[in-house]
Amino acid sequence: MRYCCAVVISVVLLLAACSPLSNAPGTPSLGEGQPTPLRTPPPAQPQANFAFLFAFGTCSTDVLDTFEQTYTREIDPGDSVTIPIALTGVQMATIYGKMVEINLFDYPEVFQIPVKEGETIGMVTPAPSYRFTVRSGEATKTVTWTDEIVEPTSPEAEALRELIQLLLQVVESHPDIQGLPPSNILCL
Questions:
Q1: CATH class, range 29-178
Q2: How far is CA 123 from the centre of its chain?
């Protein structure tokens, strides 16, 4: 009897281990060939060491760095201005909450909107580029994305755009950042 139970349990475990979880109904994916990894979800609240870097821009790059508590704006090619900046606890918790909501820790390191072969796409050029580096507890995640495809889109792209809009609202509303000179870098 013990032998029979051990064989049945072994077969069940083997079948479960071999089944393609990324094809299960309702299993979210991050594009073709980019299944959502199974892992322990991040805690609902940010860890004490939560920090992130958000680099963004189309032709120049601005960087909000909460690791170093700085904001850097590229003014001219090779010339930038860096100021000290600290976000409030509410801002940090709101941003972390959005990162958890969209499952940022499950995105691939280089995110791309999946496009099927032969599918018509709409693109924008120059396209904005984004880089997120996030630390919370033991987890660290970096995601980069050039948002050049406007059609078709994906739920993951729309979720990233929501996070970006939240971060841009925080940046644009900060009085110290509002006082910085604008970038003189033109797109060619």
A1: alpha beta
A2: 20
Share of the chain above pLDDT 90, in %: 70
* Distance between CA atoms of residues 146 and 123, nearest Å: 11
Q: Tokens in use for 131? A: 């880089």
Amino acid identity for residue 186 in this structure: L
Please give the Cα distance from 103 to 101 (Å, whole number).
6
Cα separation, 185 vs 126, whole angstroms: 13
Name the pTM for this structure. Answer: 0.77
- The pLDDT tens digits of the residues spanning 112-156 come to 999 999 999 999 999 999 999 999 998 899 999 999 999 999 999
Beta pairing partners, 76: 79
Number of C-alpha atoms within 13 angstroms, CB side, residue 48?
0
Residue found by looking up tokens 């990233």 in the block: 160
Q: Where are the domains of the chain?
A: 29-178
Q: 89-101 and 155-173 are packed helices; what angle lies between their axes, rounded to 10 degrees?
A: 170
Judged by phi (left if over 0) then psi (alpha if -120 to 50, else beta), residue 69 lies in: left
The whole-chain average pLDDT of the chain stands at 82
**Token duo for residue 137:** 């507890």
**Quick one: tokens of 175?**
């009085």
Element (H, E) at 70: strand 70-76
SS3 37: coil
